[in-house]
Write a structure and sequence with these properties.
Elements: H1 9-29, H2 37-58, H3 62-86, H4 93-115, H5 119-147, H6 161-167, H7 170-179, H8 182-185, E1 190-191, E2 194-195, H9 196-213
Antiparallel strand pairs: 1-2
Helix pairs in contact: 1-2, 2-9, 3-4, 3-9, 4-5, 4-9, 5-9
Length: about 220
């Protein structure tokens, strides 16, 4: 009976994603400005597949991978603070919520690196990372949707997060932040056609994929 080699799905996914990214960059170079929501979703999806596939291909052994995940989260926070204090890009309330998700995910990876779990423990940390990074991905996706709305359709800039925390119940603060406001609709730093929340979404999904893959990683 003939046997066929298993399909190397991460490699295939990476090649497909890179082809899609190349096509998107070529179209952008021909003169596209800020893309509509559908094109933005396409671009984010291509980069998400590419980064997640590359993460799975380069994933080291479990303990080292957890520590690497922590370093990635620390680097994301370092970049966010650089943009805030050296490029004068003040974070909107939704950005702050995503920062909390990045910090929480980094703490999960750090605890896992210190613990050095077996397969059962890795499954537990995968659940925690999925909760923290999954929440961050949902917040980032919502932020992307807000930024893609036509000008004038998003409410004007509202109260600052510190003021809301001092004067409103926590449930009201969360509701107001999730509703979005003018400062959340502004697109600041952009790299390869994607803004900060889009790249945050890409890395959150890659973190979830890595945490799940580490369950079966010796």
């Amino acid at each position: 009976m003939s046997r066929y080699a298993a399909i190397p799905w991460p490699q295939v996914a990476l090649l497909v994603a890179l082809a899609l990214v190349g096509q998107d960059l070529a179209l952008t170079a021909l003169g596209a400005n800020q893309p509509p929501l559908g094109q933005m979703a396409y671009r984010i999806g291509a980069w998400t597949i590419a980064v997640a596939s590359l993460t799975l291909l380069l994933l080291p052994r479990r303990r080292a991978a957890y520590f690497l995940g922590f370093l990635v989260c620390a680097a994301l926070m370092g970049w966010a603070l650089y943009l805030q204090y050296f490029q004068d890009l003040e974070p909107c309330p939704l950005c702050v919520f995503q920062r909390v998700a990045v910090i929480a995910t980094g703490v999960v990876f750090l605890l896992a690196a210190i613990h050095g779990p077996g397969r059962v423990g890795a499954a537990f940390y995968a659940v925690l990372a999925t909760l923290t990074a999954g929440t961050g991905a949902a917040l980032a996706a919502w932020h992307v949707w807000i930024q893609a709305q036509p000008k004038g359709s998003v409410p004007a800039c509202g109260m600052g997060l510190d003021y809301m925390l001092d004067t409103l119940p926590l449930t009201d603060v969360i509701a107001r932040v999730l509703k979005g406001s003018g400062e959340c609709a502004e697109v600041g730093w952009v790299f390869l056609g994607l803004g900060i929340p889009a790249w945050t979404f890409v890395f959150f999904v890659a973190m979830v994929a890595a945490a799940i893959a580490l369950v079966r990683r010796d």
